[in-house]
Amino acid sequence: MQNLWQIARKINIGSGSIRFGEPMSLHTSFRIGGPADLYICPADLRGLESAIETLRDEGVPSFILGGGANLLVGDKGIRGAVLDIGRLRGLEHLEDGMLVQAGCPVDLACEQALAWGLSGLQDFYGMPGSVGGAIFMNARCYEREFSQLVREVTVLGPGETRKLSIQDLGPWSYKRSPFQQGAAFEGFVILSALLALDSGSGDRIGRAMLARRADRVSKGHYEYPSAGSIFKNDRNFGRPTGAILDELGFKGRRIGDAAVSPRHANIFVNLGSATAADMKRLVQAAQEEAERAFGFCLEPEVLFVGEF
What we know:
27% of the residues lie in helices and 27% in strands. It contains eight helices and 19 strands. Strand 11 (150-157) and strand 12 form a beta hairpin. The longest helix is centred in the C-terminal third of the chain and has 19 residues, at 276-294.
């Protein structure tokens, strides 16, 4: 493999940007993370396809970055390339719903749906991250899963672009999509999705969106940089993970500037200069204490990426 500088010169991304040693703390909702060897932000789908093709041909490992939520990047950063799809945020109103590019922020999709009088996305308003990330993680908010809205996903696979219906993709599960399960879609990149939304009352949709955001504010979601809920809920535990950690006295617990929110025990926050190592230690402490006290195995929602 040639060095990254030589490889980067082969990538044609038009008005997009390419940088070396880009701090990932600038691109994650935690505001934590060391440098990416190569950071690529394509301006459009053609640029993304060019970058992916070149990186695959050159054998450079790559990581797809959406909104940077649900992500803890190690302090030593990410080896290889990071492909930031944040500029791919196109929206189109169709007869059977809304076509959304994967880099579109969830909030922007919600607001545009409101403008078009389309109902279905309002429970996700205020959730950080991109539509592509919400599909990849099968985001769940207020008992509603993002997969319930997905009718079709356009993906870039090895050598081709494909449209996959929700049936083609196979089973989805709690906060897990087919893109995370097994090798069937390994290496596929989500480009866009057709969301099945219904016509609705703008006033009713708007009120629901404001209520969801207000609820998140009351739980401290935006007080400090965070990734939202750090652990998944498990119905077999009989109560939410936040209640479990609250019972264990985790509210306000901290290691360095990595802390548990005093408002909600399942929201871990960066008080200012938290390191990935400290945040990971805090996560592990919660897992160990829950296991010891109740025999519960807490599963993180966040992905741990890069070198710690």
